[in-house]
Amino acid sequence: MIILLTLLAIALTVTVAGLLLSSRPPQETDPRPVSYAGRSTGARRTGTRSYVRSRSYVNSGFERRGRRSWASVGTTLDVRSILGLNIGMQGQWLGVALISLVIFFAGILLLRACLPTPTIVAANWPDIAVSSTSAPAKTNATTNKPAQPLFAGMAGASKALVRIPQLDPAQYFSAQDYNTWAYSACSTASMTEVINSYGHHYRIADILKVEAGIHEITPDLGLLEPGGIDRTVAHFNFQATWIKSGSLDEVISIANKGRPVIVGFPPERWSGGHLLVVRGGDKDHVYTADSSRLDMQVFTHQNFNKYWAGFAVVITPK
Prior knowledge:
Layout: H1 2-21, H2 39-46, H3 48-60, H4 70-77, H5 79-83, H6 91-114, H7 118-124, H8 156-160, H9 175-181, H10 186-196, H11 204-213, E1 217-218, E2 222-223, H12 227-234, E3 238-242, H13 248-256, E4 261-265, E5 274-281, E6 285-289, E7 298-300, H14 301-307, E8 312-317
């Protein structure tokens, strides 16, 4: 809305500036002096009295107005006449308003064409927008969360883990908290998912209160350093164990044994950086829980390694 109002203000400013800066034809003056006695004669020559009188006749209803022709409408919209109009001439102001509206709506169309859409976002990473229904998955019919896909080989907390969307307003204490943190809380959402997979029922806001309270996250940068995960989960009686091998096979093996692994995509590989949870995998695929609106659930090994640079931490109860 602010952008649209700005476009309208720009359109009006440009139009008014053009009017004020445009040259006006000099007014004709009568070189002959007009005495007080000859005011009526002078008024007929300059047209001043006739203009005032015609206005009074219109207001009083005595003057009959003819139909407007298409030629007069064209004159109203004539840009050349508009740019050179006299401020007191009301007819051309209709043209000014119409031109301003045209500029305004043209700006709206241009803005809509330039703004990113979910389709454009998905196109930036076409290789990760893989539907979970097309993956070689096995759904557990006994689960009480049918919306959460379960893949073959999962066990323990990895199997119990449920995705938490970081853009869900219900995950925050207030609308202000949502507006401040929602787009930078991927680390918080990942920790919440893993901690809850061990039987807890926290919201993102509960973990965020601690993470922000110990100054490990900011709205602009998100998680400030990897050690912030260790210090945050310690407040919930959990511990963090870092996987230093940088081996995807090891990450998948740990996750398949029932211990979800938080992994990070650094900013140089993923715009802005991102954290998500590996729930398991096999020789071809990596299964993840992603709190972002992309909700990425399946990667091939090749695509995962394109974004992952070795950041991997296992969170378990003490």
